[in-house]
Every structure is written in structure tokens, then in C-alpha cells.
Amino acid sequence: MTSASPSNSGAPQRFPVLVVGAGPAGLTIGNILRAAGVDCLVLEVETREFIEQRPRAGVIEEWAVRALQRRGLADNLLERAQLHTECEFRFAGDRFRFAYGELTGQHHFVYPQPLLVTDLVREYADVQAGEIRFGVQDVQLHDLETPRPSVSYTDAGTGERQLVGCEFVAGCDGARGVTRTVLPETTNIARHDYGIGWLALLAEAPPSSDCVLFGIHPSGFAGHMARSPEVTRYYLECPPGDDPENWSHDRVWAELQQRLGANGTPPLTEGRLIEKRVLDMHNYVVEPMTFGRLFLAGDSAHLTAPIAAKGMNLALHDAFLLGDALVAYLDKGDGSGLDGYSEACLRRVWDYQEFSQWLSEVYHGTSSGDEYRAGTTFARLRRLFTSPAAAAAFAEQYLSVRRPRTDLSVVHRPVAEPVVGHVQGLVDEAAQVSVTQCVDHPAPLLARVHQPRQPEPCQVLADGRPGRPARLREGRDVGLSPGQGVEESEAGAIAEQSEDLGGQGELLLAGSARVRIVCS
User: Of 235, 223, 253, 187, nearest to 89 (Cα)?
Assistant: First the structure.
């Protein structure tokens, strides 16, 4: 649990924010703070070389890439990442290509986490001159329920104990980190165990397909994901807790060839296995994601098994919300983002959890030994490739595409309380917003929709997409068409719809303005 600050320490150093953990979430928060001129300190138990080489997930959704791009953190990613617009399911001896890019207009970016971490730590430490200390030991958190929390640690170089004061602690040190251990007993931690394992493999072999492959087979699931032109990630379903040494080179490749085989496809390109480890498939969610002045982000707050490749995307979503909320509080005294942080994060967290569970049944039902589950698995796969509505729904969940609802026939229903929040993005459906007062003086915004019309391209928006920026002014209605956005300097907003109207309760923004909407 959290403890009081050591009384025998000298006057501690102080930073407005102290970030524990230098993964994608922690480094993204650090970069957001430094870009806004806010000092912070990042503590990491590993070395810089280790975090820049640690093999981790490599699939990033387009919304996350665009959010990194708007913050100047995606230059190398955009230049070097592979773009995927299709995936392929292989089952019952056949192959079925699923073109999700055609259905959504979006794609996945394949960019291994070590490369993203390298980019983020370089920007934070080398470009922004942010404070970061590697190899720290025995990190402890103190006084989290007071306005003056602190963190102590042992310096790896000197062996001396250091104490650092701060206003806020961002816990980004993962599932096994210290920040989760200080949560009170009243914190709810929901868990789900899939009862299976995945043998995670890295092979020194070029990809055997131009897209991700999912093998649905009675012997178990198998997955193929490109990591680079020379390295491929593979997964094999196995018993939970299995010993990787039970899987010899020959056994691994024999199982992969069988589970990913399909009529008319060449055999997989084999190569040396450079990583073998067993992942027990389980999820958890911490609610709330805050405790006093501690705010959790990424795997510290929630774990999503790699079934749907959502983990790094959730970590980045947390980081964008928390980084912006900390800047708003420290720069303007606006605490609404911090107050609503946990709730805003958890909406997406539970959405990803549900999709992961649904997809797990598709992957593993056939190998479960249960004829009923096997039958429903094939029913889902048939529907995916025969129903346009099912295909569109899967594609939107697979890429986490958020689309506003266009039927707001109940827009005149009064709501008791206004909905306050913020996210970033562009409008995907036509919308019309009446701005009665700018966000610096919180007042209601009235939102309604009208029929879409084609935008008139004349300049490039902040995120690189062409379109005609819509300018929101006090007391005026502005019609917005698909592809349009609001320039950051306008401090305006595009309302999706409120939670009271059956939506997600999010506001769609181009920029980072905070707005209040009511329906009347």
C-alpha cells in the first residue's frame, strides 16, 4: 500500500508530474507534457537499451496513429510502417480474404512497439530534454491521498535512496509494476481467464503472406503477423502454462504448416525461431483507474490478451486523455479531464474487452472439443462472409472506427445533466453544431444532424487529411460534411451525441477543446 514519505530524507526534488514506466503510455504522456512546457520525471526500472529492443505488439490502429501525428510523434512511423487493409481467415481447408479497408476507408499500421518506444524516448529525452532515469530500483509511492504525493527509489548507479515530490503520479509500469500494488481494497479488479495459452514465436523468416492470417483449426488456433521484411510473428494455441521447451523447431513448423494450410496456398516460409514464450490468455480491468493523485494508464489499469491486438492502442488512448487532462489542470486549472479520466477510458476498455472475447470464440471454438462451440464458430464465420451488415460491424470493431449516429429523431428530449468530455478526431457523418458560447465560458452546445453533402477541398487539415475546415463561431450554426474538421485555433467542437441519446457519450473534436453539450 501507499506509505508516508520517508521522514529522514532531505528536501526532495519536485516535478509537477512523475511518470512511473517508460512504455508507450508513459512516454506519450511525457511528450505531451513537455510539448506543453510542463516539467515531468519518468522513472524506468529497465535500461534504455532494453526497452528499445523488447519485442512487443506491432499493430496500431489508424485513429491512434493520427493522434500521434497531430502531436508530432509519428514521423518515423508514417515513413516506415507497413499498411494493412486486409486479413485472411483460413478454416475448413479454404481461405477467405476480408478487405476491411474497403469497408471502413481505414487501415492498420504495422510498426513494432520497440520502434515506437525508440521514437518516443528519443523525442522526450533527446529532443525535448525531458528528465528520465533508467535502471531505478525499489520504487515506492507515498502520500497519494494528499495534495503532495512523492515517489522514492534507489539509484542504480550510486545505490542511494532518492525522494521526488510531485502533484500527480502517472502509473504506466504495466501488469507487474509497483503502481498497481498500492490500490486500496475497495478497488474493483474484474478478471477473465480464457483457459488457453498461446505459444508466441518470432521467426527469422520473411512473411508468408501480405496480410495477417488467422488459422481456425481443430488442433488449435494459429496466427501469422508480419513484423518486418525479415521477421514474422507467429502464435500457436497451446495448453495454459505449457513449457516452451516442449515445442521443438520441427514441431512448431509442422503445427504452423497444418493449422495455417489451405487449398491453393504455398507452404509457409520457415526460419530460425528467435523467441518462444507461452502467454496464458487472460484479461483484467481495474475500476476506477485512479486513486488519490495516482492515475493508471495502459496495462497497469487493464490487460487485453493479444487476441484482437488492442493492448498498445488502449495504452495510447489512455495516454492521450491523461496527458491532455494533466496539461489542462496544470496550465489552466481545469480539472474536468482528470475528474472524468477513468470513466472516459473505461468506455473504450470495455468495448475492446467485449470484442476480444467475441473474437476468442471465433479463434478457439473449433479446437475446444465442444461440438456446440464449434458449430457456433462456423456460424459466425459464415455470417461474416455472407452478410454485409455483419462484415461492416466486424470491420468497424477490428479497426475501432467510431461513427456518429445520424438518426437523432429524439434530439428534442430534454436531459437532466449536460455531458462533458473530450476526444480527438474528424466528423465521419454529417452534423450541424450551434455554438452559443465558446468553451472558455462553459455553456450548452446544441447538436443536430442534416443530410451529408460532399466537402469542397481547398486546404489540408491539421492531421493531413484534405477538406474544407469549418469555423465555429458563437451564436452561429455550421454545417459539417464527411471529411471536415475544425481547426485547433477555433476552439470549437463537433458533437456526436450524448450518452442520454444512446451513444457512447463522447464528443468528437478536431483539436483538444473541451465542450459541454445538452440536447433541448
Answer: 223
